[in-house]
Amino acid sequence: MALINRHTELEPVAAGARRSVQVQAKTLHIQDLSIERPAIIAYLRNIAPEKQEIALLHAIEVGITEMAARRDRFPH
C-alpha cells in the first residue's frame, strides 16, 4: 500500500531547527556553540576566567573589523 502525502504547504527543512547563532536587529545570541579551534582555545585559556567573555567579544570585534576591511580592499 502506497503512502500519499497530502500536505500542501512546504516548509524549509531547517524551519523548526534552533540555531546556535541567532542574529537579530540589534543583538547576537550564541547558545550551545562549541568551538574546536586550537588557536582560539589556547588564546582564551591564557586569560583569566572572569575576563574570557570580554576577551572573546573583543576578538570577534577585531576579526569582524579585519574581515570588513579585506572585503573593501578585495571586492568580488
| Number of separate helices | 2
Helical percent range? 25-40%
| Count of β-strands | 2
Mean pLDDT, nearest integer? 84
Percent of sequence in beta strands: 5-15%
- Alpha carbon gyration radius: 20 Å
The computed structural class is mainly alpha
Q: Separation of termini?
A: 53 Å
Query: Quick one: biggest sheet?
Result: 2 strands, antiparallel
Strand order of the largest sheet: 1-2
- List segments where confidence is low: pLDDT < 50 over at least 5 consecutive residues: none
**Which term fits the overall shape?**
extended
- H/E series: EEHH
Task: Give a quick precis of the structure.
The chain is mainly alpha-helical and 76 residues long. It has helices spanning 38-45, 52-73, and strands spanning 21-23, 28-30. It has a domain at 35-76.
Properties at a glance:
single chain, 76 residues, mainly alpha, two-stranded antiparallel sheet, 8% strand
Write the layout of secondary structure elements.
Layout: E1 21-23, E2 28-30, H1 38-45, H2 52-73
Antiparallel strand pairs: 1-2
How does this structure look, described?
By secondary structure, the protein is mostly helical. The chain has a domain of 42 residues. Helices cover 39% and strands 8% of the residues. Strands 1-2 form a two-stranded antiparallel sheet. 0% of the residues are buried. The mean pLDDT is 84.
